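Researcher: Here's a chain I'd like modeled. Treat it as a single chain, no partners, no ligands.
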Amino acid sequence: LASGIAHELGTPLNVVAGRAAMIASGEVASWPEVREMAGVIREQSNRMVRTLRQLLDFARRRSTERSRTDLVKLARETVALLEPLAAKRGVAVAVKSGVLALEAEVGAGQIQQVLTNLVMNAIQASPASATVEVQLAARIIASNQGDGLERQYACVEVRDSGEGMPEDVRARVFDPFFTTKPVGEGTGLGLSVAYGIVAEHHGWIDVSSKPGRGSVFTVWLPAGDPSA
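Model: Modeled as a single isolated chain. Structure tokens:
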């Protein structure tokens, strides 16, 4: 974790320090060059701010107010917010559900953050003209509480048609600061934050992925009776 923080903040700090030194030394004399340097400094500063905000989200373990929330509705609202981003990349996002409503006792804002992270990652992983699928269903499976009992869970699958991941990458996707994205496109904290939030709700996230076959992230949350 410490080495990840050092890398994510150290790289842009070095860029900022270097550009500031060039301006201060008079090496950059013309106004257009100064403006260009200032733009780089602002861009890297914003990158550090985003990293710090995500780090705070990762570190916080606050109790939030939870209420009965329709996950189908929440998923549709989340996808609507991300549709402009998807459209820019030529990607469609489809929400499918076997039930009209799927309720769970959750912090709606936190679960929306989880869905946002997963869907955004899927959009970024998918090629143009692809469709990201968000599938919701109720499932009765063995509990993760170690009591041997079966319980009803809300299952939310986010499926992309990207390049997929080899086993060594898949095993690390929830590690803090681990990312395969280009520099500046991700801090590697989004999935760690999502995993922590779902765990706080007594659920978990599974991931299935193979090279050339895309990835499926599945969120499991304790649920009530679904509406047919």
